[in-house]
Design brief:
With 192 residues, the chain is α+β, with helices and mostly antiparallel strands. It has two domains: 66 residues; 113 residues, Nuclear Transport Factor 2, Chain: A, CATH 3.10.450. Helix content is 48%, strand content 24%. The protein contains six helices and six strands, in the order αααααββαββββ. The mean pLDDT is 87.
Length: 192
């Protein structure tokens, strides 16, 4: 096995931490996953025959999925599926389907940055959150809804006239959407 420098080792660790943090959403959980990844690597008898970076990345992903399943948290495909279903419900305007995607105690937070009118307090409950989303997306003509990525996670990108006017990200609990975060602040949407 070829010796690697301290810089290479730290770069590799950062790479694995980025993967694990993206999947788990927690730095401390990511640290545990990366530690377990290295434990598994050094227990392997055939390390010399394997490309380390690829093996470590795949092992880290598997460990993260195991951690998510054990904790009851949604896996990335479950999260992405809910985001796609949310997009379809928003496009159809079916408030009943929209409401059924949300937990009963769902919380919706909108950031208008003082430049776009948005609720100051969180909107609470599935009924009120679904109503707000429906009103927001039907209030302006020419709104287009697409599924894209925000901070590495599936999200809704709301555009009008080819310009992003809002992003909608969610957190998931019990296979439903528990929190909806809407960014309307144009200063924060500059790079979308």
């Amino acid at each position: 096995m070829t010796a690697i420098s301290l810089t290479e080792m730290l770069d590799e660790r950062r790479f694995l931490l980025d993967i694990a943090t993206g999947m788990l959403g927690s730095v401390s959980a990511a640290e545990r996953a990366v530690q377990e990844t290295y434990v598994r690597w050094y227990r392997r008898p055939d390390r010399d025959d394997t490309e380390p970076r690829a093996w470590l990345a795949n092992a880290a992903k598997d460990i993260c999925l195991d951690m998510l399943l054990a904790s009851g948290l949604p896996t990335p495909p479950q999260h992405d599926d809910l985001v796609r279903r949310l997009a379809a419900a928003c496009e159809s305007g079916d408030i009943a389907i929209l409401r059924n995607l949300l937990t009963t105690d769902c919380q919706l937070i909108a950031d208008g940055g003082g430049k776009i009118r948005a609720p100051i307090q969180p909107v609470r409950g599935a009924e009120a959150s679904a109503g707000f989303l429906s009103t927001l997306l039907s209030a302006q003509p020419g709104i287009a809804i697409a599924v894209g990525a925000v901070n590495g996670h599936a999200a809704l990108l709301i555009s009008q006239g080819g310009r992003t006017v809002a992003t909608v990200t969610v957190t998931v609990a019990a296979r439903k959407i528990a929190e909806v975060w809407i960014v309307l602040n144009p200063d924060k949407l500059r790079y979308h």
